[in-house]
Specification:
By secondary structure, the chain is mainly α. The protein folds into two domains: about 40 residues, no CATH class; about 45 residues. Helix content is about 60%, strand content about 0%. The N and C termini lie far apart (about 50 Å).
């Protein structure tokens, strides 16, 4: 037995893997769909769900999801365009504008 034989590699903890490694691992599991569109936190959550790993003492998941915020922003933009088209009150349009700006700030902080 020479040096060329490699010892069995222990699997790295999921939170220590890079996003690229997590994608490869998720693809090898085969049960996860949309791997390439996920970020690191989403990949870790999906892999843990498939493997049945429960985090009791780990950090709480981010309460803010950037994708959800962007969906809300797009919805509010559509509502604002409709409000402008229907010539609603200027105050209503300003409220929508301010909500959109607040959500945009939250996406920057969450990223």
């Amino acid at each position: 037995m020479g040096k060329k034989e490699k010892k069995e590699k222990k699997e790295k903890p999921l939170d220590r893997m890079t996003a690229k490694e997590l994608r490869e691992h998720a693809l090898s599991l085969g049960e996860i769909v949309g791997v390439h569109g996920m970020n690191k936190e989403e990949l870790i959550a999906a892999i843990k769900e498939i493997k049945g790993i429960v985090d009791e003492g780990a950090k709480a998941a981010k309460s803010v999801n950037v994708r959800e915020l962007k969906e809300k922003i797009n919805h509010l933009r559509q509502v604002k365009v409709e409000a402008v088209a229907q010539q609603e009150s200027r105050a209503r349009i300003n409220i929508l504008r301010k909500r959109i700006n607040r959500l945009k700030k939250r996406t920057r902080k969450a990223a």
